[in-house]
Amino acid sequence: SWTSVGEMLDEVADRFSFQLQQRRIDIAIEVADEIGEVLLDRDKIDQVLDNLVSNAIKYTGDGGQITVSARLSDSETVEVAVKDNGIGIPKKDLDRIFERFYRVDKARSRNMGGTGLGLSIAREIIKAHGGAIVLESEYNHGTKVTFTLPYVREEETA
Ligand code: ATP
Ligand code: MG
């Protein structure tokens, strides 16, 4: 359905407002003005955003910073990024992070809940949407997950 990218990102922040306040984590939403409305499967993209923001919260210390941003990487592609300044992921785990059930060392994940499926589901959803998803991380510094979506505007479907 037609979705305002700005509203969609504001709403994901709203869904986590209680946890964010409890953990004193600040969330910044930055959306390039020119994006406006995009055609996408809102439920599926919300599922991706919910997982990425919940990961960012789980793996970021109290008082941390999360930034969710959207821009046009070119005239046909929207790029959405969820960035945190949390505990990061060791280099040796990066290759496997999108595998089903893969979680970085059980000790740190034990208390966090979750099954290790979120990122693999996110990748399937983004692929089915004709986009791509990548994760960059620096251990002890933070993580950034970026996904793309085809930029389908109203004029193009009229
Ligand atoms: P689920 O999403 O099924 O509830 P999960 O969050 O553990 O469980 P994924 O979302 O697939 O599973 O993430 C896989 C693993 O990648 C996590 O267990 C965690 O170790 C690591 N990870 C994911 N996002 C981050 C992040 N933002 N910072 C640090 N580590 C992360
Ligand atoms: Mg997850």
Question: Which descriptors would you attach to this protein?
Answer:
158 residues, five-stranded mixed sheet, two-stranded antiparallel sheet, 36% helix, binds adenosine-5'-triphosphate, binds magnesium ion
Describe the structure concisely for a colleague.
The protein is an alpha+beta fold and 158 residues long. The chain has seven helices and seven strands; from the N terminus they run βααββαββαααββα. A hairpin with a 3-residue loop joins strand 6 and strand 7.
Description:
The protein has 158 residues and is of the alpha+beta class. The protein has helices at 5-15, 17-22, 42-58, 91-94, 106-109, 118-128, 154-157; strands at 2-4, 26-31, 37-39, 65-74, 77-84, 133-138, 142-150. A hairpin with a 2-residue loop joins β4 (65-74) and β5. α1 (5-15) packs across α3 (42-58). Bound molecules: adenosine-5'-triphosphate and magnesium ion. The site of adenosine-5'-triphosphate (ATP) has 22 residues, from α3 and α6. One of its GO terms (cellular component) is plasma membrane. One of its GO terms (biological process) is regulation of DNA-templated transcription.
Secondary structure category: alpha+beta
Largest sheet at a glance? 5 strands, mixed
* Beta strands, count: 7
Radius of gyration: 15 Å
Bound molecules: adenosine-5'-triphosphate, magnesium ion
**Annotation field: number of helices:** 7
Low-confidence stretches: none
Instruction: Give average pLDDT, whole number.
Output: 93
The percent range for helix content is: 25-40%
First-residue to last-residue Cα separation: 14 Å
Q: List the helices and strands in order.
A: EHHEEHEEHHHEEH
* Spatial ordering of strands, largest sheet: 2-4-5-7-6
Beta-strand content bin: 25-35%
What general outline do the C-alpha atoms trace? globular
